[in-house]
Specification:
The protein is globular, with a radius of gyration of 16 Å. Strands 1, 2, 3, 4, 5, 6, 7 and 8 form an 8-stranded mixed beta sheet that branches. Helix 1 (about 90-105) runs antiparallel to helix 2. The protein folds into 2 domains: about 5-85, ATP Synthase, domain 1 (Sandwich); about 90-130, Single alpha-helices involved in coiled-coils or other helix-helix interfaces. The protein is an alpha+beta fold and about 140 residues long. It is about 25% helix and about 45% strand. It is built from 2 helices and 8 strands. Strand 1 (about 5-10) and strand 2 (about 15-20) form a beta hairpin.
Length: about 140
């Protein structure tokens, strides 16, 4: 039996992904990271982008907007504000969310509200980047 990793992705709303996978690609803050079973322990910050979870010939793609990852020999735990399966991304809704967030940032907001709106804007922009990327 081949070694696998337990990948878990959690947001403030709860767990959004939990599966055994063969490999994980993470959008690190300074570039992509490839994680295989028996990886050395690691804690890292994540940027906006996709987590790609490979299971044999299949792969799951989950958009995340910043966060952190804790890697142990047989597990990868991701904590992020937003996580969305690529299959559920809607370009029109993402564009509308981007426009709303940009409009809100022009208003007088508390520091907490500003942080939330900025996170929402970053998530919308990351969705648009994925939906508009060239397909092979």
């Amino acid at each position: 039996m081949a070694a696998t990793l337990k990948l878990e992705i959690v947001t403030p709303e709860g767990q959004v992904y939990a599966r055994d996978v063969d490999m994980v690609c993470l959008p690190g803050a300074d570039g992509e990271l490839g994680i295989f079973p028996h990886h050395a322990p690691l804690m890292t910050l994540l940027g906006e982008g996709e987590i790609i979870a490979r299971r044999g010939p299949e792969e799951d793609r989950i958009l995340v907007t910043r966060g952190c990852a804790d890697v142990t020999g047989n597990a990868v735990s991701v904590l992020t504000v937003f996580a969305t399966d690529e299959a559920y991304l809607d370009e029109v809704k993402a564009e509308e969310a981007r426009q709303r967030a940009e409009a809100r940032l022009k208003e007088k907001l508390s520091p907490e509200e500003t942080s939330l709106v900025q996170a929402s804007l970053a998530h919308s922009l990351a969705q648009l980047k994925i939906k508009r990327r060239p397909r092979l």
